[in-house]
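--- STAGE predict ---
source: upstream dedup step, 1 unique chain passed
mode: sequence only
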Amino acid sequence: GSGVVAVGSFFSVGNYGTIIGATGYGVVLGGGGIVHNYDAFQGALIQGAKAGVTISSGEVINDPKGTITASAGDGITMGGGGGVFNYGVIQGAEDGVSLSSYGNLVHNTGRITGSAGDGVAIQEGIVSNASSGKILGGMTGVVIAGTGTLVNQGLVGGGTDGAACGGASVINSGTLVGLSVGVSLSNSGYVANTNGGILGGVDEGVALASGTVVNQGLLAAGNGSAISFAAGGGVMNGGALASLYGDGVKLGAEGGVVTNSGYLAGGENGVASAGELTLTNSGTLLGYDISGLK
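--- STAGE serialize ---
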């Protein structure tokens, strides 16, 4: 069974102890509400099999000593709009946090882990990860399926992509990495890797349809391009931007604008474009196997 089940219009659950749903859910709020897992001397625990907390809409607050966990499903699931504010530990066997509606907010200063799925997966909204925060996914660190914003000051990492979004703004001043791609945007978007930020992937650093990438930190890739546009876009680099075996910047048929005042290098080309290219270079631009510019 489940620990707490409430199906009315609005409920508030405050936990200072232990709530366990051995075969079901830790807490279920079918009509929405607020779940607050408070600090306690030994730390408050909400644990379920299918999910730690499942709520139709509202807020889930997990204090610094709090733990919300699911042994077989997601740590927290929410069907409607709302927010998750985590200062402790959220752990899911699948996703850490899964919010399937619009206008959502996830703020994390603690640790969110999705062992076999995504660390945080939302339909649309804002994900904010503070300098002390860690968001880790066996698949992807952060997923924003539609439009939204990811602000990372801490650590976001994924077994495939660090972050995968539809059309979004991604602002990184921490560490954002994926075993395949650091940041993947299926539509147009904006990616800023600020001074001190580390952004990268084993295959590609940033892969997007179109948009703008600004780098003042370290942006790197292994096998593919550090930045790859399916169509076209703009790159402003004042930091270190490099690919070990691929292109530093790769632009599709729409071409684009590249401005480099830092270090830009590719194991193949520094910059490669299939369309019209405007390049302004006042830094270092290198292409090791073929040329600096193609």
